[in-house]
Design goal:
By secondary structure, the protein is mainly beta. It is 0% helix and 42% strand. It is built from no helices and 9 strands. Strand 5 and strand 6 form a beta hairpin.
């Protein structure tokens, strides 16, 4: 997807837009600092982008994230991949669901991948849901953040 046309369908959280959605396809991985300008963040609302794949063939999507649980930044709750030929009617082709990471799971840079049958559909939609902060955390029950730096389509 690097360099392809990308459209942001949902707005990032206030103060965390940076260069979204272009930072998702620039080939530059973020560092361990969500305020560096290499990340965009969502809280309680999904991240959703549509990428024009220009007829390329692909069979998986990886979402690069930064986890910092005591800053309320968690892993995704789910990632849903959909495709379309006209950019309007999308069909789900892959999905992965995750539990909120536990307190003792190390923070840091993590990648979450969804694999699906090979396709060359023109449009690819990536939908990433945020988690509800788990009971062990001081922000329990509140919507967590998700911070993304890159969406890799292979």
């Amino acid at each position: 997807a690097m360099g392809n046309k990308i459209t942001l369908e949902t707005k990032p959280a206030t103060g965390y837009a940076f260069n979204a959605p272009y930072l998702f396809i620039d080939g530059i991985r973020g560092v361990n600092n969500f305020r560096s300008g290499e990340w965009a963040g969502w809280q309680g609302e999904p991240l959703e982008v549509i990428i024009d794949m220009n007829g390329e063939t692909y069979d998986n999507v990886a979402v690069g994230t930064f986890i910092a649980k005591y800053d309320w930044i968690f892993n995704p709750k789910s990632i849903i991949i959909s495709t379309s030929e006209n950019g309007e009617a999308f069909t789900e082709i892959g999905k992965a669901e995750y539990e909120a990471e536990g307190e003792k799971v190390p923070d840091g840079l993590k990648e979450y991948t969804v694999t699906f049958p090979e396709t060359s559909a023109k449009y690819l939609k990536v939908h990433v849901e945020t988690v509800t902060i788990p009971q062990w955390h001081g922000g329990a029950g509140s919507p967590g953040f998700i911070f993304v730096d890159e969406i890799l389509v292979r």
